[in-house]
Amino acid sequence: MTGFRELARAAAAAMAARPEVPLALATLVQVDGSSYRQPGARLLVDAEGRVLAGAISGGCLEGDVAARAAAVCATGRGVRLMYDLRADLEAIWGFGAACDGVAHLLLEPLPDPSWLAEVDAIRSRRRNGAVLTVLERDGGGSSCALLNGDAATGTWRPIGDRARWSAGPDLLVSTRAAQRTGHPVLLDSRDDAALLFIEPLVAPIALHVIGAGRGADAFVRIARTLEWEVTVIDHRPAVLADLALPDGVTTHVARADQEEALAVLLASLPHDGRTAIALLSHIFDVDSAWLTALLPLPVAYIGVLGSRKRAGQLLDAVDAALGGRGTPLTERMRHRLHAPIGLDLGGESPASIALSAIAEIEAVIHGRPAGFLRERLSPIHARTPTPRVLEQDAPIVPTECDAGRNDHRDHG
After folding, report:
1. DSSP readout, 56-71?
2. Which residue has the higher pLDDT, 13 or 407?
3. What CATH class does 206-410 carry?
């Protein structure tokens, strides 16, 4: 799923460089058993067998799919492909990869890739949406419509002159389910003699880095590599100006003690279930003021540099400040706070701390416990409920061990 920005850019570049070479798009629509990629993964290829962007497997299927693109582009009609990864790789590459699943794909011509950029724009607006793909009973299919908005209020727009489809009550219910869970839905539309693959357009993760001091640049670089939306906020204009930032990062000068201006800024930034905040100022009064403003927001994650002892002291200060406003600290607010920030990876450099924090954000957003995959009992890509370890709302309190140790995250 996702990757539409990469696909749109690659398609535009290919059309500019080789306008006479048709393009084709492969979509993974169903997986039986285990697979490296999950439904919604896409691959952009051209009629000369080039793999241009995206991925639908761990690398074992892309070449074979690209080799089929010329035939699809010549007929102008999509085809359904099925790869039994438990056996088919022997025939494709001359060796078996011992994979344990069956991948169902749609490979379709892509005469006008402009809708890929439109999909990316819908995702960036963070207002929901969906892509509808028709899988015909006779083995054909096509990406046929885009939804801009919620299932109940948004408008479906056809993609070119693609296959016919019906926007009936079943589609509404299934699209609602897809948007609520963030996972694609395969709907059996019996009236239209077709299957409907409904992929929700999940907003990109938004990361707000507060504090442009030591280590902030590492947070930003890693997050941008993942194509997250990144904002850096600091009360010192000169420090912000000196920070080397990659393209696509926005900056704001703001102080946590200027409540009205801060409220306007926070309202203008993403603050939803796919938003994470890394508080890196490491100045106690500044952190306390920011947490007082941030913890009531419905974001997914707030991480703070510092030891457990310091985190307990911050929570006491925030509890007193919020209580004075008539909005006491709740267990849900405590649950959002991750302090000390990051997973226990063992590194102590600013880049290592940034890596552990970004990894923790990924785990929280996807509802995973962040353990070793070799110790996971269920399938790697199984959509299991959020583990209990992420549901514990107990307050963070200092331990005897914390009192005598110098936590590496205590260094600003």
Report:
1. SSSSSSHHHHHHTHHH
2. 13
3. alpha beta
- Distance (Å, whole) CA 227 – CA 203: 11
Q: Assign 3-class secondary structure to 227-280.
A: CCEEEEEECCHHHHHHCCCCCCCEEEECCCCCHHHHHHHHHHCCCCCCEEEEEC
pLDDT at 167 over 90: no
Whether the per-residue pLDDT at 95 is higher than 70: the answer is: no
Q: How much helix, strand and coil, in percent to the nearest 5, is found in the chain? A: 35, 25, 40
Reply yes or no on whether the pLDDT at 393 is more than 50: no
Task: Tell me what the mean pLDDT of segment 61-86 comes to.
Answer: 91
Is the distance from CB of 99 to CB of 61 less than 8 angstroms?
A: no
How buried is residue 303: exposed, middle or buried, by Cβ count under 10 Å (0-12/13-18/19+)? buried
Contact indicator for 282, 308 with CB cutoff of 8 Å: no
Annotate 94-112 with DSSP letters as a single string.
SS-----EEEEEEEEE-S-
Task: Write a three-state SS string for 133-149.
Answer: EEEECCCCEEEEEEEEC
Q: How many angstroms from the chain centroid is the CA of residue 42?
A: 15
Q: b vs e for 222-253, b when ≥16 Cβ sit within 10 Å of the residue's Cβ?
A: bbbeeebbbbbbbbeeeebeebebeeebebeb
d(CA 329, CA 35) in angstroms, rounded, equals 43
Is the link from the previous residue into 340 a cis peptide, with omega within 30 of 0? Answer: yes
- Residue 40 zone, left/alpha/beta (φ > 0; ψ -120 to 50; rest): left
| Burial environment of residue 153 by CB neighbours within 10 A (0 to 12, 13 to 18, 19 or more) | exposed
First vs last C-alpha separation in the chain:
36
37-54 tens-digit pLDDT: 889 999 999 999 999 999
Position 397 confidence tier, pLDDT thresholds 50, 70, 90:
very low
Q: What are phi and psi of 23, to 5 degrees?
A: -110, 160
Contact 133, 110 (CB under 8 A): no
Q: Which pLDDT belongs to residue 173? A: 92
Domain with CATH 3.40.50.720 in the chain: 206-410
Alpha-carbon distance 69 to 52, whole Å? 12
